[in-house]
Amino acid sequence: MTAKKLRWGVLGCAGIAIRSVIPGTQISETGEVTAIASRGLEKAQETAAKLNIPKAYGSYEELLADKDIDAVYIPLPNHLHKEWTIRAAEAGKHVLCEKPAALNAAEMEEMKAACEKEGVVFAEAFMYRYHPRYAMVRDIIASGEIGDIRGIHGAFTFNSAANKANVRFKNFMGGGSLYDVGVYPITAARMILGREPEAATMHAFFSPEHDNVDMMASGLLEFSGGVALTFDCGMWSSGRNTLEILGTDGRIEFSRAYVVGLNEGDNFAVITKEGRREVEVPKVNHYALQADAFARCVMYGEPLPYPASDSIANMRVVDACLTSARERRRVEL
């Protein structure tokens, strides 16, 4: 356990922050959450008291002016990510930004440039990538146990359609299933294959009841070598959170691929001609591991496993997916 701590501030009282990121950071080896801000002081004070956070601010500007804060976590609605990342960078704060990092690749390029100009670290909060089970999966693939990869299929769906006031259903805020959950199988395929897709084809259901955001989307990403990711994502369908990696000699299956319970280590299955085996994985908090990887970069200069350039590449894929869905055509990357 290191004595040095990265001092975090949180911009906003979003559910993901309260339920997962703040508690995970608080049990990390390297981090402490010292302040939280909301647009109203009362809400910030209530959340601070609930989570034992020392300081509460009634504006984001006040938190950014606090010289005792080293880094900020931004769980604001998607359309605010660019503005507050740049403002945080200009205040000298390192930035962990909730996914998707931006509304498009151009915004993310601006954010990366601002952070580089100010000499601060930027990372996108895809916590699942920090869980050791994905390193274990890459080792299994490298060993040849499932042969050559022929395809990947991912699904991330849930149903919250009844809550019409949800920010996920506001077009100008960056609502829609691709932004909210489609980014998970997209990042997973890019991470597992270690390369970028060459083209995207999407079909989506844009709901007039939900400000015409994509409430369900199904897609195909083409990678080199004839490999593809097929995936679907939705916010008005039965819940799934799965990933399958198909090889010539076997496959790897996750029943809970992206979101697991805190301190749970969801196992995955390897199926070959030898049979099916469950691979036991460590019971760790991937939010804590994310905070530690970020802090080691800030404090000790360790390279980030997924730097800002990865976020730009990912947003280019999302841009292509959204264009394909809206225009009903294949989009080359």
From TrEMBL:
Residue ranges constituting the Gfo/Idh/MocA-like oxidoreductase N-terminal domain according to the UniProt record: 6-124
Chain ranges of the GFO/IDH/MocA-like oxidoreductase domain: 134-253
GO molecular function: nucleotide binding; oxidoreductase activity
Keyword entries, A-Z: Oxidoreductase
Gene3D superfamilies (alphabetical): Dihydrodipicolinate Reductase, domain 2, NAD(P)-binding Rossmann-like Domain
Tree of life domain: Bacteria
InterPro entries from the UniProt entry: Gfo/Idh/MocA-like_OxRdtase_N, Gfo/Idh/MocA_domain, GFO_IDH_MocA-like_dom, NAD(P)-bd_dom_sf
Protein family (similarity comment): Belongs to the Gfo/Idh/MocA family.
Protein name stated in the entry: Gfo/Idh/MocA family oxidoreductase
Organism: Paenibacillus cremeus
